[in-house]
Amino acid sequence: MTFPARLHILLASGAPVGVVLRRGPARSVCSILWDRRTDQFQLGQWLRGRIYELRSDISPDGRHMIYFAMNGRWSSETHGSWTAISRTPWLKAVVLHGKGDCWQGGGLFTSRSRYWLNGCGHFTIRNTAELEQDTAFQPSGWYGAECPGIYYVKLQRDGWVLKDRLSAGSGDRFTVFEKPLGHGWILRKYAHAESGADPGRACYWDEHELEHPLRQQRMVFPRWEWADMDGKTLVWTAAGCLYRARLHAKELGAPKMLYDFNGMKFERREAPY
Prior knowledge:
Mean pLDDT: 94
């Protein structure tokens, strides 16, 4: 069975750039720079392994990315998993903390040059004067030792409001986030944490809907994998593609496909630093 590429986007809060993390097949992932002014894309690097995109973040100025990765080479320098900070859109680490397991790991930026490292058990392999670890930062809540422990904190930092935590039975728990948009619209995210998810989905996955409560208007988008606002437009991913549309007072405008990431294949690329 063939599945479309899985996409997750990291949006810089203080610069018109983002990073697309594109996964597929399961053990191949690449990073891609997104210029949000021109909607142009620049390939960074590929990794044979797994990047845990929900434990990743981009600095406010868009210059650095922190991510948690695993390749299972337990006798290697990193002991098989690590938290790295790279210069976007590349994956080569300028800061490298070995981990050795898949509990916690990853982190968040607390400023353009300071970062919080998630969890204990890291050991430093490489460091740089460009960046400083923020040891005083305390997350706004505790959501476990896996992806929600970073992802839910990052969502709230970026303007999403946690509304509810529910169970759908059959091992599926989901957390409801909302972001108020213009013209009275609300973007709603259902962040699932599910054991035994459908084929093609990880145990952590999202679905989305738009609602205008005053007009009792609701649009459901179960295929949207990721969604957020970029200035005055809505951006989202579905079936390996990235889209943009303007949100009008009464409707969502016609979508424009910015890029189809499905045809990409692994290639070896060296970072320019």
